[in-house]
Design a protein that fits this description.
alpha/beta; five-stranded parallel beta sheet; 9 helices; about 60% helix; about 10% strand
């Protein structure tokens, strides 16, 4: 089974392969000295892999991170195709080896995005949702733990609390007691295994930012956090 670090290793492996392929086109001979510009170009291409990983960490959704990585793969593939397509002097064993190494890096990068996800319990942290929508979500996904902030607890919410063990947080948006319960300390106390869960944060942007900061302090991996203005995740 692929490790969870694979999606991060993919861009680095891929751009390292691009660097090797580019050097195969620029300097195919094994006995010929490499120029400083060739070294600089190779280092820059490998650095692009690290930059891609760092940039992806700042994106809020896994879909956006996937788009960034796949866009980088397309750019690298076009770069290699352009270099070899316009190079007539590159031939022989050096070209074949560099292309094979590039292909291996590309395959490893793509496979890192196809690794099967481990089954994790889910957690929903929401506010401002219709109770019927919340009920449908919990009914469709048995085992989901829900933390729901509301200004007023209704009979319908109490029924959800009894049936699905919903954790109700009563209080206005700026109520210190309500904010504490969806803070890092409050969530860590209510859900001790929160770092092992897939977390969906649904609600207004301000609520998402506040809860997102709490999840970061609880060391929940970014790849396990999903934000939505509603439950259409």
């Amino acid at each position: 089974m692929a490790s969870e670090a694979n999606p991060q290793q993919g861009p680095i492996l891929f751009w390292s392969g691009v660097a090797i392929a580019e050097l195969g086109a620029i300097q195919p001979g094994f006995g010929a000295p490499w120029t400083p510009s060739a070294y600089a170009a190779a280092a820059l291409l490998v650095a692009l892999g690290f930059v891609t990983v760092k940039a992806a960490a700042y994106l809020r959704t896994e879909e956006a991170r996937q788009r960034l990585r796949l866009g980088g793969y397309l750019t690298g593939a076009l770069l290699v195709a352009h270099e070899f397509g316009g190079t007539t002097a590159v031939s022989g064993f050096g070209r074949v080896c560099s292309l094979l190494l590039y292909a291996a890096a590309a395959v490893m990068a793509v496979l890192s995005h196809r690794a099967p996800r481990t089954s994790r319990p889910s957690l929903l942290i929401a506010t401002g949702l219709d109770p019927r929508t919340l009920h449908e979500r919990l009914a469709d996904e048995p085992g989901t733990v829900a933390v729901y902030r509301t200004e007023r607890v209704t009979d319908e919410l109490r029924e959800l609390q009894a049936r699905y063990r919903v954790i109700l947080v009563e209080g206005a948006e700026h109520d210190p007691r309500a904010k504490e319960r969806v803070s890092a300390s409050g969530l860590g106390r209510e859900i001790p295994d929160i770092a092992e869960r897939e977390v969906v944060v649904a609600g207004p942007r301000r609520f998402q930012r506040y809860v997102g900061g709490a999840l970061s302090r609880l060391a929940v991996p970014r790849s396990q956090i999903h934000f939505s203005s509603d439950l259409k995740v």
